[in-house]
Specification:
With about 180 residues, the chain is of the alpha/beta class. About 30% of the residues lie in helices and about 20% in strands.
Length: about 180
């Protein structure tokens, strides 16, 4: 299997152990400076990560995958032409994999509430040529369209965010 052969669909028929070995053999990571890291997902598509992220980014940098059981589940589920929504897209691990899997006839809607994280995700969408099939929505949950939502992003764990106790719940609220 060559470097370009390890698509998300290829993982569907692999055992977890085989998939992990195949992906780890393809790990590539580069520090770009200014706390920005470039890595490969499954040894193929590129993703940008924050050096401040001490959880998710560390796994991707050393392993090349995140939550292999869930990645394989999606490999069996997501097909060309589908529309997939990634809520809480973070740096875009699943959004990029979905974009590759749905192809030119499918669509991905990636929703990420933290503007700084969404900016990094935008770079991953662009570098992987997914701009025409993947829509990035910078928004959070709320019960009013005119409400402002504040997110608490713990240092070192940007994916573990939460709303303050008084935050609005319900519909989708744009974050500016």
């Amino acid at each position: 299997m060559g470097l370009n052969d390890l698509h998300l669909a290829a993982l569907a028929g692999m055992s977890r152990q085989t998939a992990e070995r195949a992906i780890k053999a393809r790990v590539q990571t580069a520090y770009l400076g200014d706390k920005l890291i470039l890595a490969r997902i499954l040894g193929r598509p590129k993703i940008f990560l924050s050096a401040d992220d001490l959880g998710f980014a560390c796994h991707l940098m050393l392993d090349g995958y995140w939550e292999i059981w869930l990645t394989q589940f999606f490999a069996r589920l997501v097909k060309p032409g589908m529309t997939v929504i990634d809520v809480g897209a973070n740096f875009g691990y699943y959004a990029v994999l979905f974009g590759d899997a749905v192809g030119a006839t499918g669509r991905v809607i990636a929703i990420e509430p933290v503007p700084s994280t969404a900016a990094i995700l935008r770079k991953a969408i662009d570098i992987n040529g997914l701009t025409y099939t993947t829509r990035l929505v910078v928004a959070a949950a709320g019960d009013r369209d005119d409400a402002e939502v504040h997110m608490l992003v713990p240092p070192g764990e940007p994916k573990a965010r939460r709303s303050p106790p008084h935050a609005i719940r319900g519909g989708l609220v744009a974050i500016s």
